[in-house]
Amino acid sequence: MAATLSFAEFEPLQRMAGRMARGLCRRLGLQAHESEDFSQELLTDFIGRLPAFDPDQGELAAFALTCFRHRVALLAHRTRHGAIAGPFEAWLALRGIRTLHVRHERACANAAELARRLGEHPRVSRVRYPGWGAMLAIEVAGSALDAERVASACQVWLGATSLGGVESLIERRRRYPGESVLVPESLLRLSVGIEDASDILGDIEQALSGR
């Protein structure tokens, strides 16, 4: 049975999971630090990642800056200098927020089930999952070529780099020259979508089995 990492053991995935969690909490209300006046949030992942023509990009590229104590000054600067989202971009963000909770809830449930089932697969040597969130990674038993074959054999999973969308995405991170050498050659990063859990699990299982 493949080992599942604790939250602290896999720092890159921990940071990724943190990005996802921030989309569903009031960061400034958490009062993590008394001097934290501003909160900058990327709207591209999860909030803006509804079905798109290109699953690698999504439809919205934007971020939001919120604050408590400097709200008046920020509003005055924005009024004088611009730097506001266009009406269509604002509508895209609002559309994503309306379904964010149900999409994220479904994706997280799918990811948890995948981590459990793939941890028992003989072709998976390791599962990297912090215990929550919609991102996980698996190490295919074998070489980098074996991992590439698994990713290519998937029919439901799409090969792309993004995350937080309704589609399930898969990629071998070490295929990119700039990726850290600390990332295992056979590691596949999985961004889990909202498809039926049996569909995405069955697809990756058939890819692992070479059927």
Q: Could you name the CATH class of the largest domain?
A: Alpha Beta
Approximate shape:
elongated
Radius of gyration (CA) equals 19 Å
CATH superfamily of the largest domain: Aspartate Aminotransferase, domain 1
Number of beta-strand segments: 8
- Order of H and E elements: EHEEHHEEHEEEH
Q: How confident is the prediction overall: mean pLDDT?
A: 80
Strand content: 15-25%
How many H/I helices? 5
In short:
This protein has 211 residues and is of the alpha/beta class.
Write a structural description.
It is a single chain. By secondary structure, the chain is of the alpha/beta class. The chain has 2 domains: 3-15 and 101-209, Aspartate Aminotransferase, domain 1, CATH 3.90.1150; 19-100, no CATH class. It contains 5 helices and 8 strands. It has helices spanning 11-22, 71-81, 87-118, 144-153, 197-209; strands at 3-4, 38-42, 63-67, 124-128, 135-140, 158-159, 169-172, 187-191. The strands form 2 sheets. A 6-stranded mixed sheet has the order 1-4-5-8-7-6, with helices on both faces. α4 crosses α5. The protein is elongated, with a radius of gyration of 19 Å. The model is unreliable at 1-14 and 16-23 (pLDDT under 50).
